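> example.struct
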């Protein structure tokens, strides 16, 4: 996973955690205000001018600090500012001889404990939130990922294409679809077994990953032995070069053919290409159908070749 993806994922998690904390605190702030108001009324309104009112104020500060530390999730800065406000209040009372030094020190230690409790609660909340977000991310990824090849599945491809296609339309970017099909794949399953067939699918997928490694390249396994590749901001020459590179990479795996009908000595692929600058009315399905049609042209023409603009191009 490259640094950009890691950074993007970390930023996403940070944003999600902040939103969860906001929602959590928002649900409790009303009850907190009501409770603190009632407590303030009970502690401060009776005999407001008496000497005991300073003690009541100390109790109120301690209550507010502990209550907020437990009922809401506070950041380190928020908890520190709350602790500081309570400490400043008591310092003023101490300076005015409204409370004794022993009481000041005792309550300050209690407030420090509230600060530590607040941070422990915040740590536990954030850890639980991170676990929940990561689980949801993993489930979402698994829903859009082909478990065998670790490429996007059809659903994941459609979601990724929606954004990429919109950018291509907006910026008038040249785009290309490559439909890739493993030649005579059924014969490998029939003669070698499905486990070996799965290994071949994984090896071909790895070849595609190596050949199409730009951040904007979208690659998927859309079913069986078929793969779909979307390339943006590349011209026809670059797309054709990519197809040749992929074809050569698969052949270089040196996996011996398993079909008597296959004229090639080693595993090969057929590739259909559709390119163009998408217009406002164009759909991804339009280009997909063109690439699919080109793929079948390549397969009807003997396989192990590339079909592009109605022409059959032999591998280099």
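> example.seq
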């Amino acid at each position: 996973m490259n640094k950009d993806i890691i950074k993007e994922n970390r930023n996403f998690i940070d944003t999600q955690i902040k939103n969860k904390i906001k929602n959590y605190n928002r649900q409790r702030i009303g009850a907190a205000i009501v409770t603190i108001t009632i407590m303030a009324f009970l502690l401060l309104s009776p005999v407001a001018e008496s000497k005991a009112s300073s003690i009541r104020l100390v109790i109120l500060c301690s209550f507010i600090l502990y209550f907020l530390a437990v009922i809401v999730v506070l950041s380190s800065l928020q908890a520190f500012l709350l602790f500081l406000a309570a400490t400043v209040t008591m310092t003023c009372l101490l300076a005015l001889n409204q409370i004794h030094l022993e009481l000041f020190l005792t309550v300050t230690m209690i407030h420090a404990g509230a600060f530590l409790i607040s941070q422990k609660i915040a740590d536990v909340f954030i850890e639980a939130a991170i676990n929940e977000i990561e689980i949801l991310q993993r489930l979402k990824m698994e829903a859009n990922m082909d478990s065998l090849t670790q490429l996007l599945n059809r659903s994941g491809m459609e979601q990724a294409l929606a954004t990429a296609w919109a950018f291509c339309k907006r910026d008038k970017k040249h785009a290309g679809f490559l439909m890739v099909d493993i030649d005579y794949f059924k014969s490998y399953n029939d003669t070698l077994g499905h486990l070996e067939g799965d290994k071949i699918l994984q090896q071909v997928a790895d070849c595609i990953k190596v050949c199409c490694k730009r951040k904007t390249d979208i690659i998927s396994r859309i079913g069986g032995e078929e793969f779909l590749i979307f390339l943006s901001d590349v011209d026809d020459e670059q797309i054709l070069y990519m197809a040749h590179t992929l074809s050569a990479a698969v052949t270089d795996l040196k996996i011996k053919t398993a079909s008597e009908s296959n004229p090639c000595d080693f595993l090969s692929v057929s590739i259909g290409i559709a390119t163009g600058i998408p217009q406002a009315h164009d759909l991804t399905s339009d280009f997909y159908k063109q690439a699919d049609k080109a793929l079948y042209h390549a397969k009807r023409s003997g396989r192990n070749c590339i079909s592009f603009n109605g022409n059959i191009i032999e591998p280099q």
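> remarks
The chain has two domains: 3-142, 154-313.
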